[in-house]
Specification:
The complex is a heterodimer of chains A (about 375) and B (about 200). Chain A has helices at about 5-15, 35-65, 75-105, 115-125, 130-145, 160-170, 195-200, 210-215, 225-240, 245-265, 270-275, 280-285, 300-320, 325-364. Chain A has 2 domains: about 1-15 and about 35-240, no CATH class; about 245-355, no CATH class. Chain A has about 375 residues and is an all-alpha fold. With about 200 residues, chain B is mostly helical. Chain B has one domain. Chain B has helices spanning about 1-5, 20-25, 30-55, 65-85, 90-95, 95-100, 105-115, 120-150, 160-165, 170-175, 175-195; strands at about 150-155, 155. Chain B is built from 11 helices and 2 strands, in the order ααααααααββααα. In chain B, strands 1-2 form a two-stranded antiparallel ribbon. Classes of the chains: A mainly alpha (about 375), B mainly alpha (about 200). The interface of A and B includes residues 132, 169, 170, 171 and 172 of A.
Chain lengths: ~375, ~200
């Protein structure tokens, strides 16, 4: 039975609070452990998820039933829930299988990190994505994004985004275009996302700002409702699980770039609407703030966030191949985050050296 | 004899020395170009090694790199012309990568490390085995990339039509060079796990 130690340990930690504590070294006694952080993030994701369930059903019944049909609340909710349930089960089974296999093989413990990853992955997929693709993408992301680099805490890319990027590049037909965003849609009825509309030059057909804000638009399960995402952001900021500096600087970077693009005539969409479209807010609140893959220094966080925002809008506006730039912008900045931190730390060291040498010459 | 078999296993040019990776990423989207590329590199590597080994006592050390480059370019041009004449379609796919064999680190490495200090026949064998060691990795990577990326092998469809009907899709990422890098990484990983 000792062979299955990693598996046993994982189940034990998941079901109960383990009694093992670090024996040596100085550490601060605090009730916040990794499990609690992960649970907080999942609670913060819930408003967006609940709205996502309803919206998947709402979009489905609108398209299938035509514009005029009466849509009641609970059927929409259940429809979306039943769409989401298999996705999340497949994600957890596939991702945890890889995690447990690696934990067994490498002899480390199964970390709680995957619970949030597995929770986010279904929320950033289109509702009708084939389950086997989700399984393959999750396994790929956990394996090559995290485990080969040493597991939770050592990954330099956000695993959930990596899973989405894998689907995006490997199976573009299931995650891009106008056909995939409404569940149960067919070739006759398409539900283009706002970003898709802009890319194809139909900016005048965009939904109103209010619809963008409330989220009654086609899109990934978790990304559409900006109110729910803001509630999640408040929970994360209030509990200090995610850093408001990153969220703020992503918003500022994105808004300023979008504003400039609009003023200079590159893009017909006003800046504030760019922020409300696609996964910009979801990425800013839940993905860019990932404590492992974002920059760690305070100044670095501002730089990281600003560049994520700027790049996301630049990709959206200038690259006609990719309607959504947020995913690629965050992944790219994930790669540069250690470099940003290095530069910030080095600059700090240089500044202090200078100050020290000045003090010394003054003292003599 | 063991010395010559090294490149095929524990001294593989790609997996252990990490040389020649660039072309390994570029030409392995399909089996056929990969095999042709592997053979081309093997031929160029073997015969450049032979010629340099024959000339090794007459080349002044200060200009040896230029002489090596000349010999390698001679064989590369020969191979390029042959491919254009006999296998025009493959030659189109390989495009600049045949010409770039000149800059393949494996070939220059073998000339410097082996041919300049060994007799002609061992040099010929060494060049050949290094080319084959390189080619082996190319073919393995190309096998997976073509099978998973295009559903074909050697341009013949192998994934049954019924799979596609059931919702199977080719993996577009396999066609792109980044996936070749990951596959080479996986091979290195597998090799390290087996030998350590």
């Amino acid at each position: 039975m000792r062979k299955f130690n990693a598996l046993f340990d994982a189940i034990d930690s998941f079901l109960r609070t383990p009694a093992t504590v670090t024996a040596t070294g100085s550490h601060i006694r605090d009730c916040v452990d990794m499990k609690r952080i992960m649970i907080t993030v999942m609670i913060a994701l819930c408003p967006a998820l609940f709205f996502g369930w309803w919206n998947v059903g709402y979009q489905h019944f609108t398209v299938v039933g035509g514009m005029g049909c009466v849509i009641s609340f609970w059927p929409c909710f259940w429809y979306g829930f039943l769409k989401w349930l298999p996705l999340v089960i497949v994600t957890y089974v596939s991702g945890l299988a890889v995690e447990v296999l690696f934990a067994q093989w490498r002899g480390h413990e199964v970390a709680e990190g995957f619970f949030v990853t597995g929770f986010i992955i279904p929320m950033i997929m289109p509702p009708d994505v084939p389950l086997w693709i989700v399984a393959v993408a999750t396994a790929f992301a956990v394996l090559f994004g995290k485990e080969v680099f040493g597991g939770t805490g050592y990954n330099f890319l956000n695993p959930a985004l990596l899973a989405r990027a894998f689907v995006f590049f490997a199976y573009p037909s299931v995650i891009s275009g106008d056909k995939v965003w409404v569940s149960g849609g067919n070739d006759a009825v398409t539900g283009a996302t706002p970003l898709g509309l802009v890319m194809n030059g139909h900016a005048e057909a965009l939904p109103s700002t209010w619809e963008l804000f409330v989220g009654t638009i086609p899109g990934c399960i978790g990304e559409t409702c900006k109110i729910a995402i803001l509630i999640g952001a408040i929970i994360l900021i209030f509990t200090q699980v995610a850093d408001w500096r990153i969220m703020l600087s992503v918003l500022v970077g994105g808004y300023v770039t979008a504003f400039l693009c609009h003023v200079s005539g590159l893009c017909p969409v006003p800046g504030y609407r760019q922020i409300l479209m696609g996964g910009f807010l979801f990425g800013a609140v839940f993905m860019a703030t990932d404590p492992v893959t974002a920059a760690h220094t305070r100044v670095g966080k501002y730089i990281f966030g600003l560049l994520v925002g700027i790049l996301a809008i630049i990709i959206r506006v200038l690259n006609k191949g990719y309607p959504e730039g947020m995913m690629l912008a965050i992944l790219l900045m994930n790669i540069f985050a250690p470099l940003i931190d290095y530069c910030v730390v080095q600059a700090n060291i240089r500044r202090r050296e200078k100050r020290f040498s000045q003090l010394k010459t003054n003292g003599q | 004899m063991k010395k010559y078999l090294g490149p095929l296993s524990k001294d593989n040019p790609i997996l252990v020395q990490t040389l020649g990776v660039c072309s390994a990423l570029a030409v392995t989207a399909q089996m056929k170009p990969a095999v042709v590329m592997a053979l081309s590199v093997t031929v160029v590597c073997a015969f450049s090694n032979l010629i340099i080994s024959l000339l090794r006592n007459t080349i002044p050390p200060r200009i040896r790199i230029i002489v090596q480059l000349l010999v390698v370019s001679f064989f590369v041009i020969l191979v390029d012309q042959l491919l254009q004449a006999m296998l025009y379609d493959v030659s189109k796919i390989l495009s600049v990568f045949v010409g770039l064999i000149i800059t393949n680190c494996i070939i220059m490495g073998r000339l410097e490390a082996f041919a300049l200090s060994h007799k002609p026949i061992p040099s010929l064998l060494d060049g050949m085995m290094n080319g084959l060691g390189y080619g082996f990795v190319l073919v393995v990577v190309a096998f997976f990339r073509e099978l998973l990326g295009s559903g074909t092998l050697w341009n013949h469809p192998v994934v049954p039509q019924s799979w596609y009907a059931a919702g199977y899709l080719n993996n577009g990422l396999m066609i792109l060079p980044p996936m070749a890098l990951i596959l080479v990484g996986v091979l290195i990983w597998a090799k390290n796990s087996l030998t350590h």
